[in-house]
Amino acid sequence: MQHGLPPLNALRAFEAAARLESITGAAAELHVTHGAVSRQIKQLEDALGLALFSKDGRGVKLTNAGMRLRDASGEAFTRLRDVCAELTQARRDAPFVLACPGSLLARWFIPRLDRLQRELPDLHLQLSASEGELNPRREGVTATLCFAAPPWPADMQVYPLHSEWIGPVFSPRCAQAARLQTADLSALLAQPLLHTTSRRQAWGDWAAAQGLKAEQLQLGQGFEHLYYLLEAAAAGLGVAIAPQLLVAEDVRAGRLLAPWGFVQTQAQLALWVPKSNADNRAQRLAQWLKSELSETAAS
């Protein structure tokens, strides 16, 4: 026996049979057949070189060696079950730390946060917002919500939630608003376009989808983060490129205008969870987010 221990599956089968005083009962508890438990006990007896059960009429009874092993294994498995239960409870009580872009948090997540906490009260959600590049492998983060294009990394469990759609938006307060509302797409070629320095290609992606030449676009003021870009657009400073999800409420309310609509990109809003730190709460959060996003798209 390696390290002085017999096969653990055999010990588990024996412990259940000894505790219940029934091989049939052990088979039912372990969800295996009577024969499987009998074989495991025989394997354990062979490994120890001792008989653990003896015939007793149509049933079996423990030998002296079997009673000693019953007491020792019972204590060990009880302790293991208790510790596993404690660890599971500690995991459930630990906060679920969700990293996400600050712009997504402010414009979409926070208005729904109260409902999320009511509907998933045991999530113990803790939010970590950033407008920089999000690292889904960062220590202390349970999951990351972000826009990205597949393929997904092999070390991540990724739950795709919603396709990304982007388009130009501007405020009614913008100096060119009246003319731009009725102009065709070519009008944007003469506009210095607001953009984020972290995703300068967004305008080019949109232009390619619309059949325009990206090199004809003129990039104007750049902003480090999307949140600032959207604030600049809302202040009437010019035309910005924005994800539909983050400006949908502003467009519906007339605070922003989107006369040319939105086009789909290859990116997806997805929940990323490191496989090395899998948390079963992530799937429930992903289901909730997907349902909310579907309602947002339908409204």
TrEMBL record:
One of its GO terms (biological process) is positive regulation of biosynthetic process. Residues 6-63 form the HTH lysR-type domain. SUPFAM superfamilies: Periplasmic binding protein-like II, Winged helix' DNA-binding domain. One of its GO terms (molecular function) is sequence-specific DNA binding. InterPro entries: LysR-type_TF_proteobact-type, LysR_HTH_N, LysR_subst-bd, WH-like_DNA-bd_sf, WH_DNA-bd_sf. Keywords: Amino-acid biosynthesis, Aromatic amino acid biosynthesis, DNA-binding, Repressor, Transcription, Transcription regulation, Tryptophan biosynthesis. Belongs to the LysR transcriptional regulatory family. This is HTH-type transcriptional regulator TrpI.
